[in-house]
Specification:
Distance between the termini: 46 Å
Strand order of the largest sheet: 2-3-5-6
Strand content: 25-35%
Number of strands: 6
Largest sheet: 4 strands, antiparallel
Helix content: 10-25%
Number of helices: 2
Order of helices and strands: EEEEHHEE
Number of domains: 1
CATH architecture: 2-Layer Sandwich
């Protein structure tokens, strides 16, 4: 298969890198050109094994993170997304903040037409929390 020039700047895809970033600030989300920029289509990414830390108790939180978006000029590269999401593993943050941070970071790097990030967190203390953030924000 011929090499695509538009993919040469990706630093993780196709490389043997296995060291996960220690925090979201260290992670590097990467994008590649959307091959159908004029078409409205949805991409759904499912991360059923997301984990982070409660900022008050230090106890682990686990969640299913769903990311759905209509790409603009670029799409998120999934290996970089996997590393980015794994970087929250030792990150103390409230569930609501995590979902909004993921949305903000993806909007910044991709500039999608539409984006929905949904975090379905495992029950803690008998309550299951789900947070959903959207872009653009409804008017």
């Amino acid at each position: 298969m011929a090499e695509r020039e538009d993919l040469k700047n990706l630093s993780l895809l196709g490389k043997p890198e296995t060291r996960l970033p220690s925090c979201p600030e260290e992670a590097q989300l990467e994008v590649f050109p959307n091959q159908r920029p004029g078409r409205k289509y949805w991409i759904t990414l499912n991360c059923p094994e997301f984990s982070s830390l409660c900022p008050v108790t230090g106890q682990p939180d686990s969640a299913r993170i769903l990311i759905r978006y209509v790409p603009g000029e670029t799409c998120v590269e999934t290996k970089s997304l996997k590393f980015y999401l794994a970087s929250f593993r030792n990150q103390p943050a409230f569930n609501e903040e995590i979902v909004n941070r993921i949305l903000d970071d993806l909007v910044r790097i991709m500039k999608p037409q539409e984006l929905v990030v949904r975090g379905e967190f495992a029950p803690r203390g008998g309550i299951q929390l789900t947070t959903e953030a959207t872009y653009p924000e409804p008017s």
